Amino acid sequence: MALITKKIKGTEDVLPKQSYRWQFVENIMREESKTYGFKEIRTPVFEHTELFARGVGQTTDVVQKEMYTFDTKGGESVTLRPEGTAGAARAVLEHSLENEGLPIKASYFVSCYRYEKPQAGRLREFHQFGLEEYGTQSPVADAEIICVAQSILDRLGLDKIRLEINSIGCPECRAKYNQALRDYFGGFRDRLCGTCLSRLEKNPMRLLDCKSPEDREIAKDAPKITDYLCDECEAHFAEVKAYLDCAGVKYEVNPTIVRGLDYYTKTVFEFVTDCIGAQGTVCGGGRYDGLIEELGGKHMPSLGFAMGLERLLMVMDAQGIEIPDPDACSLYIATMGDEAKRKAFTLLRRVRECGLIAETDVVGRGLRAQMKYADKIGAKYSLVLGDNEIAENKAKVKNMKTGEQTELALDDSFAERFSVLTLADDSSFEI
Ligand code: ATP
Ligand code: MG
Fold first, then answer.
1. Which CATH superfamily does the domain covering 16-170+230-318 fall into?
2. Which of 24, 69, 282, 409 falls 20 to 30 Å from 228 in CA-CA distance?
3. pLDDT tens digits, the chain, 431 residues: what are they?
4. Cα–Cα distance list, 136 to 132, 171, 275, 289, 313 (Å)
5. Ligand 1 atom nearest to CA at 308
6. Helix or strand or coil: residue 68?
7. Using a 6 Å cutoff on CB, does residue 116 contact ligand 1?
8. Ligand 1 centroid vs 310 CA: distance in angstroms?
9. What is the DSSP string of 233-266?
10. Distance, C-alpha 194 to centroid of its chain
11. CATH number for the segment(s) 331-420
């Protein structure tokens, strides 16, 4: 096949007949996060490369290996966003959103770009839904965003997803912990992968996140951050857990979670499932109290999470979760002759104003082929408009399932009467 009719490796199309599945999931995310007071933020798909280098962290896999970076014609280095947080944080700073009051609460849907090895659940262009909250230290906020994620997963009908939480402390506890990690991993220098060796000095916690099987094995017995937390971090973690208990959210403490980005502090969490193979993390998040400062702002403790939409849809498939069918066409008007076409055009506009899906022939088919098409798209009602109907100014609307016919005048009352007719199909509705 010619190159131009093949999509780029690691990307996916969402075709018209599948998009309702995405919309179902997205609507639940939108509704649920709205109830917690989050409002959507939309930021550009590309940013200055430096923003991600700083905002995601120089020692991360994302920055070291996975970014789509290029020079523009103007000689600037720009990068396709590999995640949603850096852009949101940049927008917070650029528009001084703290002046509008704290906390700043934003949700986002983004496409992300990472040059990874494509496989099930791992794409080069993928999509995330996420939350960002800036300007709060409170453990209530940590528990609240975890609750949003849990509610979304619940409303999607998912089960067998476990919530794992950890605290990775603050720079103070981290200093002692990093030294303990250097001491521990230092004993395995000859067995560590090249990337880990280079990170051993700068950011030894990254070694806990390495995907290489041998390094994972070594990491199993590494010192645990939870043994190094300072009093404040320990108390914060205890409170987060207490609030989760209040909300009835079940979790496991997993001291090996460190998350992939550099600026996480205190709480980190993941929602993980075993039902879609190795790429089982559907949501990851936590606190990044140092991020805004790292980007040149004032100290502004922050937190958030991101969910991978492709992975969530995979889990829904794997668990056989049914998504309601998309709305079908309510009315198909078949036409014979030019006058009928014009009449149909007028009527359809009104029917659509009532919020119903309505179609007519736009490819010049004969009557039989039009009716076949109406059947194919699953139209609930059809109506044939010809010279007779126009002359009498009335026509029979046919219920495609039962064959039942109802005569309606083709005047200004048509759309309203038709919509009452369709409502009557819903047995719970009495006219
Ligand atoms: P992983 O450990 O699987 O590489 P990550 O730590 O890099 O994940 P984050 O940066 O936290 O992931 O992104 C949040 C979520 O986005 C992940 O939990 C996952 O659901 C999704 N995600 C991340 N990378 C990809 C990808 N390449 N393809 C599809 N989804 C992804
Ligand atoms: Mg990754």
1. Bira Bifunctional Protein; Domain 2 (3.30.930.10)
2. 282
3. 689 999 999 999 999 999 999 999 999 999 999 999 999 999 999 999 999 999 999 888 899 999 999 999 999 999 999 999 999 999 999 999 999 999 999 999 999 999 999 999 999 999 999 999 999 999 999 999 999 999 999 999 999 999 999 999 999 998 999 999 999 999 999 999 998 999 898 889 989 988 889 999 999 999 999 999 999 999 999 999 999 999 999 999 999 898 867 778 999 999 999 999 888 999 999 999 999 999 999 999 999 999 999 999 999 999 999 999 999 999 999 999 999 999 999 999 999 999 999 999 999 999 999 999 999 999 999 999 999 999 999 999 999 999 999 999 999 999 999 999 998 876 554 44
4. 11, 18, 35, 9, 32
5. 20
6. strand
7. yes
8. 10
9. HHHHHHHHHHHHHHTT---EE-TT---SSTT-EE
10. 33
11. 3.40.50.800
Give me ligand 1 centre to Cα 30, in Å: 20
pTM: 0.93
CA nearest ligand 1 atom 11, residue = 284
Ligand 1 site-directed mutation target among 311, 312, 313, 316, most atoms within 8 Å of CB = 311
Domains of the chain, residue spans: 16-170+230-318, 331-420
Q: Which ligand is nearest to the CA of 278?
A: 1
- State the residue for tokens 């506009």: 349
Output the CA 386–ligand 1 centroid distance in Å.
57
